[in-house]
Amino acid sequence: MPLIVKIDCPHCHTKSSGFEVHGGFRRSRDVHRTPNGVPQYLYDDWFLLSCGRCLKCITAQYTFLDSKELSLENTLKRHGSLESLGYRYEAHFPTEIHLEEPEHLPEKVALPFRQAVSNISAQNWDAAGTMARKALDVATRDIARTRIEDETKSKDTVKAWLKKRIQTLREEGLLTRDLSDLASILKDGGDEAAHDDEPYNAEDARKLIAYAQAFLTYAYTVPGMVKEVRERVEDSPSLDTGSRMTD
Questions:
Q1: Which phi and psi (to 5°) does residue 190 adopt?
Q2: How confident is the model over 93-142, as pLDDT tens digits?
């Protein structure tokens, strides 16, 4: 059973929708001691969540105060809800939806995603599914090209079939298990839209768009947000939480 939280969905407007936790990043960890000398760890964690109804994604901020060390990796392996683990909800973004496109996408990745969304609006379901798959294809090549340090492996991965490319990115630690599974589902659905004799349907096309949005959000938006935070900290010493963090 995955981690689940209840939040009002800004996409489909479902009240207290069940959001599944797909991943996260730790923005900061502060340590102080109680008057009795007991260490207290304050964590500021951000999570990628998908709505159980419309499958679209948001990011949510939670804080956690505990007397012992807690790795984010261990949190993501737990079950139940974040609140049941002691996390306190702080905020989620976006609170209102004005644009479907995830932030921090390279233009070559954003273009097929926009075409997928526009084909949903035009009710071109086969084209929408096909372009959602292309967004994944272009994104995985970009990740292989820019994030695999070994030049030979990078080039080989870029040239590989999409299925093999997803597997390699997972082996290289550039995709989590859940994210590689999501990519495989998106790939298979896009293949059906492109090659099956039967016309693709609206529900499946919308799901593929949601899967593409989730993948791109985790692959680009979350790292982009982390980079922005680090840049703000570097530019504003008063915001430097890193000096209070320990490895």
A1: -65, -35
A2: 877 544 468 889 999 999 999 999 888 767 789 999 999 999 999 999 99
Rounded Cα distance between 185 and 156, Å, is 23
25-56 pLDDT, tens per residue? 888 888 877 778 777 888 899 999 999 988 88
Instruction: Indicate the burial class of 158 (C-beta count within 10 angstroms; 0-12, 13-18, 19 or more).
Output: middle
From the list 159, 165, 162, the residue with the least C-alpha distance to 187 is 162
- Cα gap 242→187, rounded to integer Å: 39
Is the separation of the CB atoms in 79 and 46 below 8 Å? no
- Residue whose pair of structure tokens reads 């589902």 in the numeric block: 185
DSSP code per residue over 85-110: GTEEEEEEE-SS-S--SPTT--HHHH
